[in-house]
Write a structure and sequence with these properties.
The complex is a heterodimer of chains A (about 110) and B (about 475). In chain A, about 20% of the residues lie in helices and about 35% in strands. The radius of gyration of chain A is 17 Å and the shape is elongated. Chain A has a single domain, classed as Alpha-Beta Plaits (2-Layer Sandwich). Chain A is of the alpha+beta class. In chain A, the strands form two sheets. In chain A, strands 2-5-1-6 form a four-stranded antiparallel sheet, covered by helices on one side. A two-stranded antiparallel sheet of chain A has the order 3-4. The N and C termini of chain A lie close together (about 10 Å). With about 475 residues, chain B is mainly alpha-helical. Chain B has a single domain (about 30-235, about 245-460), classed as Ammonium transporter AmtB like domains (Ammonium transporter fold, Orthogonal Bundle). Chain B contains 16 helices and four strands. Chain B has helices at about 10-25, 35-65, 70-95, 130-150, 160-180, 195-200, 205-210, 215-235, 250-270, 280-305, 310-330, 335-360, 365-385, 410-440, 445-450, 455-460, and strands at about 120, 130, 395, 400-405. The chains are: A alpha+beta (about 110), B mainly alpha (about 475). The interface of A and B includes residues 45, 46, 48 and 49 of A.
Chain lengths: ~110, ~475
């Protein structure tokens, strides 16, 4: 099993949800985060102070998937989340040692 | 706003009338307040309360970080409550009864002698409003002046320190300055030249100097502004000031607060007319136009110089205009009001962006930059735009019952007296008061407490759950 973590632009969330649902992924976790990379931030001004923010709002989507569909999910996410402009985000894949469905106690591939 | 002491005259007037009536064949009647005037000043009083709670509270609250919003709300709210009580107990008496040129007396201590039929004079001969209404109206001025100061040392002061400071500063700075600027015998004392001179000799020190302050540019804004600066300097900068970003946590609240301030300010300025008449309309117009001009001036200048017109800037510009027109609103014409607003919008923007950065002090919410600078500007420009040649009202001579000859230079000097005395008196009292508080209660919270946030540390609450 793998844990796919996708950092995407917030307005792309609905597209990503729909696309992974089509592939058969039934659960995901969403967090609002701040991210910094190559995208240019902006300057904020409050009376006498001025500061530059390079940290921009992003959305983190985490899905636990079976090894068999990892490539499929990655490609699907990239296709819908890509705008071609700076700040589209990143996908990280990590090995998932175990997964458990709390309600039933199912483990492993049955749990994702 | 002008000061007024009556109610002592009334029993004498009745007695005199009783003696004279058979001799001269007419009855000297006790003045009866006009219901329209009374209704208006009562309404104005409510509007000024709204300026403080929640206007000022939200204006300040939205500007600080979310971990400190409750501390600002509490400081404004409880300062309002505390000053209200002190005003009733001794404040009104010390500000608005006879004493010397600097402090009034104790004739109204605990409001003794004040009844529902007591009256207070207005700016028109023979016209009075109930003294109780005047008492309440002036109470709201004292309360908001004290509340203004808290913005300067926001996010780092101990709550107990705020309350103790307010008691001291209110007693030894607000009361005497209000007395100096606004205490006079009222227009009915000016029957002839001799009586007029005698009346003026018993008035407040700055009133005697001829200083004009219709609604409180010196008494409220310069006063509070300089006290704020002294506080900001004595408390020192916030932890992380200059490096860590500290943007306002809720600008919509700031806008709501600023709007409540503007709307309420019509009570503050127009209520200071003490009558519901045509002139009240002029004061209203001045208050409206100066503010609009200032907000636009600040916004456009910000747009040109810094790239974007901000909500915080527009709100601050409006407040700067309100501050500047406060002393002038009953002395200038509408075009003069616009001029004052434009100048104040630009000057206060500079004070807040340029001056503050250059001098490096941490006046968290720009109490000095907006209220002190705006107040000084407004007080001095009053001398200019009061001139009838520039659309102003000139100064009325109650003995001659006509507008006197006007000299901008002479009036400017009188205004300068008021500005300098207010600055020095309030600044010195504030410094001593802060020192006393520092030695007793302690001024600042610890660095760790400041990082955590005053809401949890001082009030045991979180604003947003």
């Amino acid at each position: 099993m793998k844990l796919i973590t996708a950092i995407i632009k917030p307005f792309k969330l609905d597209d990503v949800r729909q696309t992974v649902a089509h592939i058969g992924v039934q659960g995901l976790t969403v967090t609002e985060v701040l991210g910094l990379g190559r995208q240019i931030g902006h300057v904020e001004r409050y009376r006498g102070t001025e500061h530059r923010t390079d940290l921009l709002p992003k959305t983190r989507v985490e899905v636990a998937v079976d090894d068999a569909i990892v490539e499929q999910v990655i490609e699907a996410i990239c296709n819908v989340a890509r705008t071609g402009k700076l700040g589209d985000g990143k996908i990280f894949v990590t090995r998932l040692a175990q997964a458990v469905r709390i309600r039933t106690g199912e483990m492993g591939a049955d749990a994702v | 706003m002008n000061s007024r002491i009556v109610a002592r005259i009334r029993p004498w007037a009745i007695a005199l009338g009783a003696v004279l009536a058979p001799i001269v064949g007419y009855a000297q009647e006790a003045p009866v307040p006009d219901k329209g005037d009374t209704a208006w000043v009562l309404t104005a009083t409510v509007l000024v309360i709204l300026m403080t709670i929640p206007g000022l509270a939200l204006f300040y609250g939205g500007m600080v970080r979310s971990k400190n919003v409750l501390s600002l709300l509490m400081q404004v709210f409880l300062t309002f409550c505390a000053i209200s009580l002190l005003w009733a107990i001794y404040g009104y008496s010390v500000a608005f009864t006879s004493g010397n040129a600097f402090f009034g007396g104790f004739d109204r201590l605990f409001l003794q002698g004040l009844t529902s039929s007591s009256v207070a004079a207005t700016f028109s001969k023979g016209v009075y409003i109930p003294e109780y209404v005047y008492f309440c109206f002036q109470l709201t001025f004292a309360a908001i002046t004290c509340g203004l100061i808290v913005g300067a040392f926001a996010e780092r002061i101990r709550f107990g320190a705020v309350l103790l400071f307010m008691v001291l500063w209110f007693s030894f700075a607000y009361l005497p300055i209000a007395h100096m600027v606004w205490f006079w015998a009222g227009p009915d004392a000016y029957t002839d030249a001799a009586a007029g001179s005698a009346a003026t000799a018993g008035a407040g020190f700055l009133f005697q100097k001829g200083a004009l302050d219709f609604a409180g540019g010196t008494v409220v804004h310069i006063n509070a502004g300089i006290a704020g600066l002294v506080g900001a300097l004595m408390l020192g900068k916030r932890v992380g000031y200059g490096t860590a970003p500290m943007p306002p946590h809720n600008l919509p609240l700031v806008m709501i607060g600023a709007s409540l301030l503007w709307v309420g300010w019509f009570g503050f300025n127009v209520g200071s007319n003490l009558e519901a008449n045509g002139f009240a309309g002029q004061v209203f117009a001045n208050t409206l136009l100066a503010t609009a001009a200032a907000a636009l001036a600040w916004s456009i200048a910000e747009w040109v110089h810094r790239g974007t017109p901000t909500m915080l800037g527009a709100a601050s510009g409006a407040v700067a205009g309100l501050v500047a027109i406060t002393p002038a609103c009953g002395w200038v014409g509408p075009m003069g009001a616009i001029a004052i607003g434009l100048i104040a919008g630009l000057a206060c923007l500079w004070a807040v962006v340029g001056l503050k950065r250059k001098l490096g002090y941490d006046d968290s919410l720009d109490v000095f930059g907006v209220h002190c600078v705006g107040g000084i500007l407004g007080a001095l420009l009053t001398a200019v735009f009061c001139s009838p040649s520039l659309g102003g009202t000139g100064v009325y001579d109650y003995v001659a019952n006509a507008v006197a000859d006007y000299s901008i230079a002479t009036q400017f000097k009188a205004q300068l007296w008021a500005v300098l005395v207010s600055l020095v008196w309030s600044g010195v009292v504030a410094a001593i008061a802060f020192k006393i508080v520092d030695l007793t209660v302690g001024l600042r919270v610890s660095e760790e407490q400041e990082r955590e946030g005053l809401d949890t540390v001082s009030h045991g609450e979180r604003a947003y759950n």
